[in-house]
Amino acid sequence: MKKLVLAIAFIGIGGLAMAQQTTTPQDKEARRAEMHQKMEQKHQEHLDEMKKDLNLNDSQVAQIKSLHEKRKSEMKADFDKNKEVRQAKMEDMKAKRAQMDADMKKILTPDQYDKWQADRKAKMEQRKTAMKDRKMMKKPMNTEAPEAK
Fold first, then answer.
1. pTM (2 decimals)?
2. How confident is the model at residue 84 (pLDDT cuts 50, 70, 90)?
3. How many H-runs (helices) and E-runs (strands) does the chain carry?
4. pLDDT grade, residue 38 (50/70/90)?
5. In whole angstroms, what is the distance from residue 87 CA to residue 80 CA?
6. In whole angstroms, what separates CA 88 from the centre of its chain?
7. Which member of 44, 101, 122, 147 has the lowest number of beta carbons within 10 Å of its beta carbon?
8. What is the spatial distance between Cα 59 and Cα 41, in angstroms, rounded to a whole number?
9. C-alpha triplet 36, 42, 43: angle, nearest 5°
10. Is 90 exceeded by the pLDDT of residue 25?
11. Under 8 Å between Cβ of 43 and 68
């Protein structure tokens, strides 16, 4: 019994310690800059691979690069245009979640409500972990052209 209590205590303390990790704006900026640099590097590698595989000349590479930049700017514009709609949807979802929370608080006893909140939080953590695992498990797409028969 003592071992069980100690194990639960260690798990609880470990969970609290992990929950206390915070990121600073400098960390976010550094991560964003690193991610941007990696994306640029992958883009350049992709262009180099296309140049080699398709035997492109420098003019073609420049045209493809400008086409990619144009497409990228169009996508960013679309993303920015729809930002307000996404934020409105998020606010609506938050309001609905808060309303459900208030309704559940009226229905459940305080102990039941606390247990429901803890279960909901645990399930959300499981989903986050599963999403991170899926991202780690993703394999790079096969960029090779199918062989001609």
1. 0.46
2. confident
3. 5, 0
4. very high
5. 11
6. 20
7. 147
8. 20
9. 90
10. no
11. yes
Please say whether the beta carbons of 47 and 64 come within 8 A: yes
Confidence of residue 59 (pLDDT cuts 50, 70, 90): very high
Across 54-59, average pLDDT? 91
**Tokens (6 digits) for 24:** 């600073």
Q: Supply 142's token pair.
A: 């096969």
Cα 129-127-116 angle, rounded to 5 deg: 125
CA-to-CA distance for 146 and 144, rounded, in angstroms? 6
- Hey, what are 64's tokens? 């493809």
Structure tokens at 100: 């459900």
Tokens of 87: 């934020």
Structure tokens at 106: 């009226």
